[in-house]
Structures are given as C-alpha cells and as structure tokens.
From TrEMBL:
Record lineage: Bacteria, Pseudomonadati, Bacteroidota, Flavobacteriia, Flavobacteriales
Protein name: Aminoacyl-histidine dipeptidase
Keywords, ordered alphabetically: Hydrolase
Every Peptidase M20 dimerisation domain range: 208-276
Superkingdom as given in the UniProt entry: Bacteria
PANTHER family given in the database record: CYTOSOL NON-SPECIFIC DIPEPTIDASE
Record-linked InterPro entries: Peptidase_M20, Peptidase_M20_dimer, Peptidase_M20C
Pfam families: M20_dimer (PF07687), Peptidase_M20 (PF01546)
C-alpha cells in the first residue's frame, strides 16, 4: 500500500481507508472484512457483534456532555464492486486494492477503488477510534452485500438498533444531501437452445467491444454512456440480417449495477461473404464510433478472424435473441415529474451470456415509483418471453420516500451553509441507498445520506477527491456536535 495515501489529510480517515482497502471484500464474500471490522471494534473495547445476517454493529457511548442528545446510527456497507480493465492482472479475492495519488484524486491501478462505500466506512471507523471527537451515543452499522442484493439491509430485523437518527455515508457528490432514492428489481431472462454443427466453408470471427466508460447503473444512467451489450447486439443483428451471421458465444458485461463496458462474441459467416462482411462491419463500426465520439472517445470495436467454433446457436432462437435485446429498453425510461433533473425509472441491460446451449440476460431496473418499476420490469419480461425465455423477478427492494420536514435535514443544511457560504443541494438520487429498506423496520428513524465526492463508481475509473474528503470530514465532525437533544 503506497505510503502517499497514508500521508494524506485527514490522516485518521485515509489511514482507515488504507487499512480497509488492504482487505479483499467482494460482495457475498465478506468473511474477511467482517472479521476485520469485528477485530477493530473489539480492539477498542467497544460492544461489537454480528446480527443474524452478519451485519456488524459496534456501539460507543456518548462523550462527556453529550449524553442528552439523540442516539445516532452511522451506517455504511462493507462490500465493494469489483471491476477491472481487460488488460489488468488482478485477483480481487486475494489482493488488496493498489492505490495512488493523481493530483486531487486517489485512484486504483486498473481496478475499482472501493471508495464506494469505503470512505464512508473509514469515516465511521475514525469516529469510533477517536478520543477527541465530541458525539452522542453511537451505533455503527456496517451492512453486507449492498452492491449485489441489499442483503444486509433487507435482513436487518426490527429492534436491533436503538438510535433515533441515521446518517448514511454512501452518496458521491459533496454538495448534495440526499433525502430519497430509487428502489430496484432484478429482471433475469433464461432459456436453453439447441446447438448446430458449424457448416463447412465457414469463416470464424471474434468481435470485441471495449473501451467504454461504464459506471454506476443508477447515478450514471442518464449520461448517455454506451452499453456494450446494446452495441454488440447492433453489430450481430446487422451481420445476421445481411450475411447470415451465426453466433457461437457471447459474453458481455459483468455486474447488474455497472453499465457494461465490454462484450466479446464468437461468430461465423459463410466463406462467400467473408470480404463483404468485414467491409460492412467496418462501415457500421465507423457509424457507431461517430455517434459516440463525444461521450465515448475511447470506444474500440474490433473484428478479427479466429478459429472456427464447433457448435453454433440454433438460428430460430438466435433471431429471437437479437430482436428481443433490440426491443428491450436500456437507459432512462422516465424522468421524475416531482423533482427536477431526477431520473424516475431506468433499466440497465447488464449481462448477456450465450454459451453451451444456455442464454442468460441480466437486467437491473430502478425507480423511485414502485408502480413504474414494475411497469418497466413487465415491459422487459414481455420482450424476453416473446422468444421463449423464462423470466424471473428477484432482489426487489423499495425506494426511500423523501421527508422534507426532517429535523436532521435542517441541522445538515445549516451546518453546510455556515461552512461553505452556500446552500447544499437537497436531492433524491437514482441509486439504491439502504435508507428506504432500513426504514421499513425502523419507520420512526430520521434518516439522511451524504458523502464525499467520488467519480466513476463501479468502474476502473473510480476516483475519490482528496479536497472533498477534507470537506466531508469537517462536515461530519460538526454534525456530531450538533445532534438535537432528546425530546
């Protein structure tokens, strides 16, 4: 771990982040980071325990003179999104994140950084360890599996927490205070298909889409970034329509909450179409790159001859697949009528897998309006069922309804304005925060979400602002000192 990270100010925040990032912590494989956090709490002599789903809770008493303040829950999630560049050799299950300083930014070498939500977790750790910060009674809630299912929040039972106010430290623009978020649902389409022998006289090709920006499938969905699965489908559809292209394999995207950056397909065409097919593909590639030249300047689409595959997808199923992905909605579906510039409903066609007689298409549909979420999910379901897929809905979680009369909101707005000589933006976001889920079992808890500036979350371009982390740290310390008194 680079010492330059540990020398950044505030040192207690960045040292805790460096400690955390040395621990592999993929979603659904949190054993090591759970042990790390429990060992940390126990080393401080604080009450530390796991709940039934393996969230970790650490309790710290109020400092002198703060005993009459409302009890506070500080919340962040332990897992991180694992994404890396195609040419980066890295084992997320075994290696700690390799960080470096680039001007005002902390970055990782070819991988996601883990600032989402590692900086929030590190801030909570710094508070728990400090003997100097003034604060009311604290419960630190470290949830698991936020990134791939909200499992920790969904399974946190009523009665475990004692706090009156919850501060979620998991948003990514330091001038925003979030009071609402989108809910989500996983839409998954699966079907099997018959494989055919590769005809004699065929020519094999590998088509690769790469170099896209990617990013968070909620926070970045409105930015017009390219979706590798949609771009690949466009290429395959044209090759099929004009030259009888047949598909052997497709592997596009990775995680549901990441806009897909890369896709690779293995295909064949008849030898008689060889030159015409390549010429046509180059024209389409040029068109696509022209369309995306502003938003995706690093987009690369390659077509190269490769070994002939032994088996191909049944042509009837292939046509249905290509047409259904063309028809399936990707991107913003509806903007909010109630909050300016807020995406209400969207979908990310996140993962497309075709291999060995099996098809899987994985989507994440988000909305701040439950009925709109189900409406779009049913639209996707219809597109996939029309070509014979079995479609399942899973991992549904609710949105977080804004409370503009929140007492803690007033506290944060006043402190922010005093510290920065301007008002913060009070917003709802299109990401899936855990507040809405936690509120189902703790309906009387006053909740707010904020955090330091992090760009490129869920992609290898993830970076955290050093200056913003200092602003965030100062903001949190004054919030702790100004928690309202108990009624």
């Amino acid at each position: 771990m680079s010492q330059e990270i540990r020398n950044l100010e505030p040192k207690d925040l960045w040292n805790k982040f460096a400690d955390l990032n040395a621990v592999p912590r993929p979603s659904k494989k949190e054993d090591r980071v759970i042990k790390f956090i429990k060992d940390f709490g126990n080393s401080l002599g604080l009450e530390t325990f796991e709940d039934e789903i393996r969230n970790v809770i650490i309790r710290k008493p109020a400092t002198a003179g703060m005993e009459n303040r409302k009890a506070l829950v500080l919340q962040g999630h332990l897992d991180m999104v694992h994404q890396k560049n195609n040419d980066t050799v890295f084992d997320f299950d075994k290696q700690g994140i390799e960080m470096y300083v680039d001007g005002d930014w902390v970055r990782a070498r070819g991988t996601t950084l883990g600032a989402d939500n590692g900086l929030g977790v590190a801030m909570i750790m710094a508070i728990l360890e400090s003997n100097e910060m003034k604060h009311p009674a604290i419960e630190a809630l470290f949830t698991i599996d936020e990134e791939t299912g909200m499992t920790g929040a969904l399974n946190l039972k009523a009665g475990v927490l004692r706090g009156d106010i919850l501060l979620n430290m998991d948003t990514e623009e330091d001038d925003e205070i979030d009071i609402g978020c989108a809910g989500g649902i996983d839409v998954t389409a699966n079907r099997s298909y018959n494989e055919e022998e590769t005809p004699d006289g065929s020519v094999g090709y590998t088509i690769t889409v790469k170099g896209l920006t990617g990013g968070h499938s909620g926070m970045d969905i409105h930015k017009g970034f390219g979706n590798a699965n949609k771009i690949m489908n466009r290429l395959l559809f044209d090759g099929f329509e004009n030259f009888g292209l047949q598909i052997a394999e497709i592997s596009g995207g990775s995680l549901r909450n990441a806009i897909p950056r890369e896709s690779v397909a293995k295909v064949i065409v008849a030898g008689m179409y060889d030159e015409a097919f390549v010429f046509d593909m180059q024209e389409i590639i040029g068109d696509i790159k022209t369309e995306f030249k502003t938003m995706e300047p690093n987009l690369a689409i390659e077509i190269a001859k490769s070994n002939l595959p032994e088996k191909l997808m049944d042509l009837g199923v292939q046509e249905g697949l290509l047409r259904s992905i063309y028809a399936a909605h990707n991107g913003v579906y509806r903007m909010s009528a109630d909050m300016e510039d807020l995406v209400e409903t969207s979908n990310n066609i996140a993962r497309v897998l075709v291999k060995d007689g099996e098809i899987s298409i994985q989507n994440l549909t988000r909305s701040s309006v439950e009925t709109s979420k189900i409406d779009l999910a049913n639209s996707l379901r219809s597109a996939y069922e029309l070509f014979g897929c079995e479609v399942t809905f899973g991992g549904s979680y609710p949105g977080w309804t804004p409370n503009v009369k929140s007492e803690i909101l007033d506290v944060l707005v006043n402190i922010y304005e005093k510290q920065n000589n301007e008002k913060p933006k009070v917003v709802a976001c299109h990401a899936g925060l855990e507040c809405g889920i936690l509120g189902a079992n703790y309906p009387d808890m006053d909740m707010i979400s904020f955090g330091p500036t992090i760009h490129g979350a869920h992609s290898p371009d993830e970076r955290a602002s050093i200056k913003s982390s200092q602003k965030f740290y100062k903001f949190v310390l004054e919030i702790l000192e100004n928690i309202p008194v108990k009624n």
